[in-house]
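This section describes the prediction task in plain terms. A model, or a person checking by hand, is given the sequence of a single protein chain and must write out its three-dimensional structure as a string of tokens. No templates, partner chains or ligands are provided. The sample shown here is typical of the held-out split.
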Amino acid sequence: MAEWHSWVGQVLDVDLTTEKITKKPSDRYFPNFLGGRGLEAKVLWDEVPPEVKAFDPENRIIFAPSTLTGTNSPLNGRWNIGSISPQHPREWPTSSAIGGHWGAELKFAGYDGVIVHGRAKQPVFILIRDHLVEIRNASHLWGMDSFEAQKRLQQDIAKEGPVPDMQEKPSGGRYLPIHIRSVIIGRAGENQSRIACILHDSGDAAGQGGFGGVMGSKNLKAITVRGTGGVKVKDNIRMVETAFKIRKMLRAKALAVVPPYGGPGGLYGGNPKIITGYMKRTDACFGCQVACRGFFDVPGSPPGQAQCVQIQMYYNWEGIGPVAPLHPDFANRPQDETTWHGVKLADYYTINAYELTGILSWLWACYKEGILNEENTGIPFKDFGSKEFAEKLFGMIARREGFGDLLADGLHRTAEKLKEKYGNRVWELYEERYVAHGMRQHWFYIGSAKGPADPTGYPNPVGQLMWAMGSRDPYSNCSFSREPYGAPEEAQMIYGTKDAANPFNYNGKAQAAAIAYTRGCMNDSIGFCDWFFPILARQPFFAQEVPGESTAKQGDITLEAQMFSAATGIEKTIDDLMQDTFRIVNIERASMVRRGRRREDDTFNEYYFNHPDRMGKPIDRPAWEKAKDDFYNYMGWDPKTGIPTRERLEKLGLKDVADTLGV
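The expected answer:
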């Protein structure tokens, strides 16, 4: 491409072993692989052989802004990190979405992604300031928590003052050295925990996947960025018009309120007192009008961001669901300074908060049943829920001390090892809380009195298929897939069949799951937040009626294509974008197939085949297997093996992938 629009033209490749930094032209990856998750998929297929393990130097970790990141497209602040996952029981490739401002900052510096491989001889960080990219010693930062280390980086770099060509620019504004953005790890990442996250600012995290441990295995403490450029788009007027259309659908009139949907606390069973007492403002990712999280200043802890399950990780651990009512043993416990202390402690150490909800629930269940106690774990169960307990347990995990060394590898591996010593009950309690791929329950069922992930909930056949076919929890990018249940017109609009609206059978669900899974990948690749895209209906919790404007509730599932076309200058229909995203999904699948994945691996824990849901029935295995056949046929994968067919791969321009797989 002579001139780039939306993409900025270069991808950084950093070899930490040789300290070689290469700037690759973006047309090696785009537009065929869109951005974000697409870049990750292409790099992992091309550059990581199937024998490479997650913590090997040859593994790649890819930091990948999306196509629209850094533009004025609404809600474009989400971006992705991908690698071979140490959290996954089989170490398959996967991806984790993250928000905040780092992705936009990287594009302002002139890069569409950063690929890191090798292992540094000593702790290092990567410093990116426009064209100047350096690998620097981070020995003085190693051992620091994620907050302290980010502040130290800001202070040290600010003392250096501006570097050449970092003065005021019309496209980027004035350069202030202290205004930098970092992605960073704490002690859990440094000690290669398989459940270590990567933190950005004071609360944005790439949680699932264990990618903080991958950074630690490479002796990489942080990547710090400051960019003074801009992101060009092809059609400014069309961008503004489309953005305005989207904003009106999401919120007709901006109001300074705490969003009741996906917001910090309240909706998910949290005590609203922590919002009214300690929240100073709403907080948003780059380019977001919604601001779905809160910024809190709680006595005894540094201020920071939090939202959703993160804010109640150390508050609520009912036996099963991650967002269920309080456990009866802790029903009178307030959501106060103690719970916030636990939340921020996890962020300091960079331990995945979502995994901790499962660990806490499982530990308490094992304690109540007399399996685990302080004597055989070193964990002071009598102090469960206190500040001291959080400091003890989270510290054990982060430092890999004693029983914490087991937990640092994630609950799947912990339960697998302990069932040999304590019997199968520890495994049953694990499976009750986890769905597949070693990951915590998240909307596997549709709500019940105990919470939306509880096994006593109603069926969610679309969710079942997505859980089985991926390599992680699918609901970081497919939240919308619950909305068409009970809404035939919405199901017809997004899935092409009204049958998908009925959650009590598998009719139409394979097609729905394939489309939902692919649309989720599209969100991660071109840059839309899955809490609001695709827009199936105007959101009543944000919309304010404005005199003279339409009150229609109908959504528009073509908005992604409209915005992509305006930004890049490459005209795409939504069907075109779906084909592009099918290409990404298929190369992801090929990477897993190359590592041994087959049809029999496309399932979830046995627990769900043996325990009834709220309708009084477990999952019907023959019906489930038939739904898998239908899914494979829709995707163009061989129903006998689950491997993409040559016909499908060649249709997507992936003949080289078909040749490698030998199909």
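For orientation: Residues 574-594 form the longest helix (21 residues).
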